[in-house]
Structures are given as structure tokens and as C-alpha cells.
Write a structure and sequence with these properties.
With 560 residues, this protein is an alpha+beta fold. Helices cover 32% and strands 21% of the residues. It binds adenosine-5'-diphosphate and magnesium ion.
Length: 560
Amino acid sequence: MAEKMQFQAESKRLLDMMVHSIYSQKEVFLRELISNASDAIDKIYYKALTDDQLVFEQDDYYIKVVPNKEARTLTIIDTGIGMTKEELENNLGVIAKSGSLAFKSENEAKDGHDIIGQFGVGFYAAFMVADEVKVLTKALHSDQAYLWESQGADGYTIVEATKDQVGTTITLKLKENEEEENFDDFLDEYQLKSIIKKYSDFIRYPIKMDVTTSKPKEDNDKEFEEVIEEQIINSMVPIWRKNKNELTDEDYQNFYQEKRYGFDQPLKHVHVSVDGSIRYNAILFIPENRPFDYYSQEYQKGLELYSNGVLIMEKCPDLLPDHFSFVKGMVDSEDLSLNISREILQHDRQLKLIAKNINKKIKSELKTLLKNEREQYEKFYESFGRQIKFGVYNEFGTHKDLLKDLLLFYSSKEKKLVTLDEYISRMPEEQKYIYYATGDSIDRIDKLPQTEIVADKGYEILYFTEDIDEFAIKMLVNYEEKEFKSVSSGDLGIDAADKNEDNEDEVKENKEIFTKMSEILTGKVKEVRASKRLKSHPVCLSADGEVTIEMEKVLSMMPD
Ligand code: ADP
Ligand code: MG
């Protein structure tokens, strides 16, 4: 009879905590066990680097997941380094003790940074889904195998056992289903496959599973039969670790679709590999179409965050600034300090650095698109231009300068979208301002009496048809030292129209009628006067001060 060993007192409490509160989702137990298996294989790999007796044959190393519905067990097999009796006691008997962390510090020089484990708690995640866990293991260079067994908080036993191959086999006896929890999911091929894909797709060793598939019969290819076939579930080499030169546009598009970043084709991708004070890889996509909920409260921005190929967070919002919230993709870094559940980041310093870097990359990618592929950029702008304008409006200070040359507006010249740069470069020398006109549509703006005098001078006018346009531009104040000026503003900088605008005589002559008009329009206009700006139109409205008529409209619609 095996002697029952007690977990240390702290460990008992910790185990209880593990099972009930550390992880937000139970399915991560599989991520943790597979990560451990991968670490165990890595350890053989690192040992082989310095041990001539040891040859690392890639094909000998794998992880296998075996569900058994009848027995209600799930088994995870690895051909890794295994554990001695002592290691079983130390690493699985003491919670929060990480053999992997110790291995990493012993082998620092040999570059063990691919090893995932560090906190010594992941293993116990198994108790979230199992009421009994068995670990059968045989260590490298050892003849004796051992069986570790535990039903949770009341301790564990270790007995001698037999096992042919070096490595570890962990068998979970799954809990009975509870009202809101269906542990059968973890016996289901399809569910298991998707959990493995989700969290462990880029584990560097094959994760195998026997999968039932239906195949045409050998003697009659019209009939199908069910066959069980061993498949490799994970893709192993993450696309972002591959050499950019070896990847085609199609590879990136497939990745975009596989990851369900969107249902469209991405307009553009950026593959970033940074190897400086912070190391990270990222693949970023600029989608072509706007998701249907993009401008709603429901839309959540964010990038997938991986630590060393293992998914940590599905949507990390801190990686993207609001003005680029449309960007999809992922970031993988080995330099993140994670908290104990490996779901949240401990310090956000690294994350901030990465985010800053990514912001710059996206900006420069959009600039290149604008410069070299105008049509594509305009497509992008149609989907997300409004967000860029919101960016200029909201993030005054640092970001508006970053964003201002990404802006496009329709202009009176050829009725096309133009950048502010293009506008400036065509300005006649004497033109003082960048003129714009606001209205519901291009057509309606064209009919505004106020545009006439500016257009007559041959000056280009920007058409602001979106409510945000003028607000954004007000934040900029000027562009390349040229101030923005509404065509309906009192002071246009065009001689004939400005100053002495009110012709004294005309005012006197028509005093009566103007007074009458003012009376009728009380509360609607401040005053009625004669104007020199009008050409073919009999009357126009003009605004006093900074807030134009269009802005007043928007402001009056906003809730107080
Ligand atoms: P961590 O992985 O953070 O170190 P875990 O609780 O997941 O913590 O695992 C504790 C320790 O148990 C590991 O560091 C490792 O030494 C050992 N271990 C766990 N699973 C295996 C395995 N499959 N093969 C060999 N050693 C293992
Ligand atoms: Mg672990």
C-alpha cells in the first residue's frame, strides 16, 4: 500500500484557489498540460545540444491526446524528458514550484527561452475538470517508472510502475457533469480539436489525435466508411515565425480567413519582426470592409496576444489605439511578463512599447498605401476614414499630427478626394486660407450662395459632408500653417467680400425692410444686413464667431 503524502499546507489552499478562481475558462487546462509536454520535449532538445550520447530525432517527439468516452478519461501522452521520483515530489507535490523555471536558470547560457513554464501552477489546472489525476512517468536515463496519483486537496501517492518509453502519460478522470458545466465536451473529438487549435496551434511539436473520418471504400469509391486516422492537429510553425520572403499574399490571406479575423479579403497585411530592446513578431491586417457593428458600442478592438506561440488573450485592446481600431491580427512576444494564470499581463511596460511600435507601423503602412495605391487607399478610407477623423478630433495633442496627412476630403476640383497636401500644393500664392464648405451633400454645397465668391476666385473648396469633418478640422486649426476657413465665415480673406461689407447707403435706404425682416425672423437670425458677397443668389446665411451653422446643427442634436 502506497503511503499517502500530504500537499504542503500552502499548497492545499493554493490548489483550492486554482480549481475555483485562477482561470477564467476551464478549457485552458489542456493548454497547460500541452505546454508542459512541449516543455518536457524541449528539455530533451536542450540536453541533446550538449550531450553527444543523445541524438534528437525530430520524429520521435510528439504529444498525443486520447479521449476515452467509455472510461470518461482524457489522456495526454508525451515523449519528453519525464520525471524521476524526486522530481515528481518536488514539481507536482509542491504547488508553485516550477521545475521548468529551475531548468531555464540552470541552462540560461543555452538559450532555453522557448520553455513556457515558470509559475509551477499550470499542472493543477487539471483539477478544474478532473477529480482524479494519474501521472505515469519515466525519466530520461532512468530504468524505473513511477505513478503519481491524486484526487485533489487531500494529497497524492507515488508508487513504482512500469512504462517502456521515456516520457509522461497523464490521465484525467473527468468530473461528472454539473448543471452548468458539461465535462463531456473534453471527450468530444471536435471540441478537443478546436481547443488545441485555439491555444496550442503553434506548439513546435506535433500534437496528435485519433480522428474519425469518413473515406471512400477501397473497392467502391461511391460508398464511404468510417475510419480512424491519426492526425496532427496543430500547424506547428506559426506563419509569423516564417521568413517573409517565403510567404505569398495567399498565405497571409489564408491565415486571415483561418483566424476568422473577417469574412472579407484583407486589403493589406504587414508582417513585423522586431528584435531590439523588445522582441516581438506581429501580423497586422487592414480589412477591406467595415464590420457591420464597427461604429457601434458592441465592436471590440484588439489583437490576439501570444506568448511564445501560446495564446494568452484573444483580444488585447491595449495593443491598438482607438484611431486604428479596425486593424486585425496578432502579436507574439517572448518578453512579456505574465501573471500566474498566464491570461493577464503583469506589467504593461512591454505591452506599451509594442503598442507604440505597432501604431507607427500601421501609420506608415497607410501612408505607403496612400502614396502608391491610391485606389486601394480610397477603398480603405470609405470604410474607415470616419475613424481617422474621430482620431484627429479625440486625441488632440499627440495623435492628430500623426493622422492629419491620412485625411481625405472631396474637393471642388474635379469632385475627387484630395489630401490636405494636394490642396496646399495647388493653392495660388495669394490664397490665404484652406476653404471648406459644410452641407449634407456635394450637390447641396454646390448650391450654397457662400461658395460662389470663393469658387469665382478660382480657389479650391473642400466639401465637408460628414458631421465629424468640421469638428476634426477645428482641432487641427491649420495645416502647414494655412488656417482652415469656412466659406460662410464673416472674414473670408478675399478683398471684395470682406470689410466694409455693409454698404452704408444701402443699409440706410433699406433700413425699414431690414428691420421688418429682423422682426419676422426673431429668434432665428441675429440681424439682417446688406452683403457684398452675393452674386447670383439673393440671400445667404452667415455665421458669427467660431461655430459655423453646420456645427450648430450637430451640437443642437447632441444630448445635454
Ligand atoms: P510550470 O509549467 O509553470 O513550471 P506546472 O505546474 O505546469 O508549472 O508544472 C510543474 C512542473 O512539473 C514543471 O515545471 C515540470 O518540471 C514538471 N512537469 C509537469 N508536467 C510535466 C511533463 N509532462 N513532463 C515532465 N515534467 C513535467
Ligand atoms: Mg506548465
